[in-house]
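Hi support team,

I'm filing this because I wasn't sure whether my run with pyridoxal-5'-phosphate finished correctly. The job status page said complete, but I'd like someone to confirm that the output block is well-formed before I use it downstream. Pasting the exact inputs I used:
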Amino acid sequence: MSTAQTQAKGSKNALPQINTSLPGPEARRVLELDRTYVSPSYTRDYPLVAKRGQGMMVEDVDGNTFLDFAAGIAVVSTGHCHPEVVRAIQEQAATLIHMSGTDFYYPGLAELAERLASIAPGKEAKRVYFGNSGAEAVEAAIKLAKYHTKRDKLVAFHGAFHGRTMGALSLTASRSIQRKGFGTLLSGVFHTPFPDTYRGTYGVRPECASADCLSYLENELFRRRVDPDEVAAIFIEPIQGEGGYLPAPADFLQGLQRICRKYGILLVADEVQSGMGRTGKWWAVEHAGVEPDIICAAKGIASGMPLGAVIARASVMDWTPGAHASTFGGNPVCIAAAMATMDLLEREYIANAAHMGEFIMSRLADWRERHKIVGDVRGRGLMIGIEIVRNQKTREKAPDLRNKLVHAAFQKGLLVLGSGDTTLRLMPPLIVNEEQADFAILTLDGCLEEIEREE
Ligand SMILES: Cc1ncc(COP(=O)(O)O)c(C=O)c1O
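And here is everything the job wrote out:
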């Protein structure tokens, strides 16, 4: 029995139990089928074949159970199959599954819009557009920004991930494999350095990352490559997700807002991963006191039902009927799930995310001293990145060791995922408690020790 399991013995919480070798026999059958028939474009890190989920736990098809610190890539904010979310889905499914907000009215669409509008930062009234995913929200934000400003250039950041549809992909600069083979993307998109305070980027000093990146944007990009008067919007993830769980410093976000206001550029916060309470506030930008003109939300918004939203200042969302729409966007069942999710987040889980974020960070505070391959620990709320390096002094990236860590955790019943080149991310459901966090931390601690011994 591992230290983590010993400590958790007698707990009221269910904890992982691995009964077969992984993958087990039934999992192997599904993997074979998947290998034959499913698109090979997906990137699975390890062979988890899920059968059911409850709260923080996932059971696989062979009866093994896992503690979920990946949350379906930051999606099941209220945990797996929260009874209140399930009830809302079931009741709505028995009443009205689909109508299409594009052509008809139904109460949930307007009611959720009102609710999302009320939690977006800034005094001005907001309006909301609904789609089915993060990429669709970004796609809609691109169109809205161009429509409203009558400008056609866009700025995004090195390391950004905004989705995989052609518009969203044009803003994405996370991995070239995501763009390779797809030809010319949207024209008029410019990328600029993101303030990485650990590593810096080319020419950006980590200790002055905010100032250097703002200066590059205004004095280099805007002077030499694109006139700011032609820029419709700057898209930013307040905490880069797929890029390595990198929080943008508050002074950077504030500076970016200043630059946007100066040149009449819309500030778009892609809060698809960082939003809906994950950082301990509804939106990560709130930590910096920034008020974006447009917010993109998805992932955690409906606890696993497909929904994306664009929340914009009412004066910005001025497009006319027919300009943009989606058959399924804002489907009644997804909206019911979102309403129940927001009730739960408001009632207790945003506060829990703030508390548990601090709890986990305090437990990880000495990991750089204790683990020679831990280069950095960073994040906000339940969006925490642990950067793995080969050498703390040189900060050399160690993607192989990061991947080993992810695999080793899986074998011990902990689901985590990588992010960026060399970061491990912790993004549990917002319901996580101290005991479960301790299990995850002790498991990772043990895995790190094993990996370090082998090094
Ligand atoms: C910040 C951000 N924006 C957009 C997306 C795309 O969302 P989806 O996969 O729902 O299209 C993601 C997905 O990881 C994301 O992290």
